[in-house]
Amino acid sequence: MQTPIDQKIVKQEIDNMGLESVGLASIRELNRIVNNIETASGDRFIRMEMGVPGLAPPQIAVDAEIAALQQGVGSKYPPFDGIPQLKTEISTFVKNFVDVDIPAESCFPTVGSMQGCYMAMMCCARRIKGKDRILFIDPGFPVNKHQARVLGLPYAHFDVYEYRGDKLGAKLETYLEKNDVAAIMYSNPNNPAWICFTAKELEIIGNLATKYDCIVMEDLAYFGMDFRQNYSIPGQPPFIPSVAGFTDNYILLISSSKSFSLAGQRIGMTAIPQKLFHSTGNNLKPFFGSDRFGYAYIFGAMYALTSGVSHSNQYGLLGLLKAVNTGEFNFVDHVKEYGDRAFAMKKMFTENGFTIVYDMDDDQPIADGFYFTIAYPGFTGIELVEELLYYGISAISLTTTGSDRHEGLRACVSLTGKERFRELAERLAKFQADHPLGSDFKIIHA
Ligand SMILES: Cc1ncc(COP(=O)(O)O)c(C=O)c1O
User: Fold this and answer.
1) Is any atom of ligand 1 closer than 6 Å to the C-beta of 141?
2) Does the model's pTM come out above 0.90?
3) Across residues 276-298, what is the average pLDDT?
4) CATH architecture of 59-330
5) Residue 439 in this model has a pLDDT that exceeds 90
6) To pair with 35 at 20 to 30 A between CA atoms, which of 96, 273, 326, 443?
7) Which of 110, 219, 255 best tests ligand 1's pocket when mutated (most atoms within 8 Å of CB)?
8) Euclidean distance between CA atoms 64 and 81, whole angstroms
9) Where does the chain hold its CATH 3.90.1150.100 domain(s)?
10) Sign of the C-alpha dihedral, residues 204, 338, 358, 396?
């Protein structure tokens, strides 16, 4: 049987990588295999394995950074917690789009939200004696668990698929009751499933964080990108749903990578409410030299990790945020393209026998955004990753994300422009023709 990509080449490149299972490959490993197959075959894949922005960075940010470099900021150390103008602009941004008042003092840039997450884990897990566990509401971004492991922190996780809506509280309490949870972490919208918690679910999480005195690490890596609502007008409802409305025990981790297409710049934002920032913890001092949470964060953790974010980069983000906060630059319009792609691509998959795995937010269909999840009857996710390689389509297995839906894959839309849609549809049609629904027929080319 002929497949869109030469079978011999696919097989050979899979073997060359020497992995135990292609289906369990990490994102970067799969990325490498696909690069190798593309080079060896001369064919281009529909690349859906990596969550990288596929859009150009906003010119305003580029210009602002160049101007700062030309003025010579490159020779000077920036303050650990950010240049004052940027801190103020982050505070305004959070007020404009999440509708919470967080003073500039506790708003600061980080080296990507990735570093923000790492620092948050570090400080949350050392805040109170006996509370050092991170609880991940999965599916999730595998690197966050890697961070917990690197920090030597215990963690627990569960797949939220079966626990949406009212069921979420009881499930969370089974972990929180043990009183060792330092922080609860999730991304919203979610990587990989693109589920978004409802206000009711955020309220449940917030109330329990207060009750059990643990901190919610709310990862807003896809800030404003639930396109079902228009969150793009500064200072006007609807505001981006957040646990911030329901507890003071939270840290907002905001990425510039996807919403602002600035992944290469490695700049993100952290915002900590006043009450938490000025609180004390009985376990902080031995690690950070102070028992004050905010002080430990900046002069303990930030100092030790990166001592701030590159100076010119801060000016780039500052220029952009100013334009966003005044309504001059609509960042949501800039990335809405991803939602349009997801709508079209999900249709192509479902018309060719695939199903959407995480398909609902409680009682509402999920949004079209940066990712979606797919399955094909009769295949495990691990098998499907490998089989799709022969059809020139690459995606990662949900098994690597803490999901219990082992039949599923995560597909990212960012690198597939409309000009590739016809090719995708043809490859999917061929896949379905080769794997007729209702038959047990599977070719696993391994
Ligand atoms: C859920 C989630 N958190 C964090 C990040 C990393 O963000 P940054 O590039 O700002 O470090 C990503 C990037 O893919 C992500 O998906």
Assistant:
1) yes
2) yes
3) 97
4) 3-Layer(aba) Sandwich (3.40)
5) no
6) 443
7) 255
8) 20
9) 7-44+336-434
10) negative
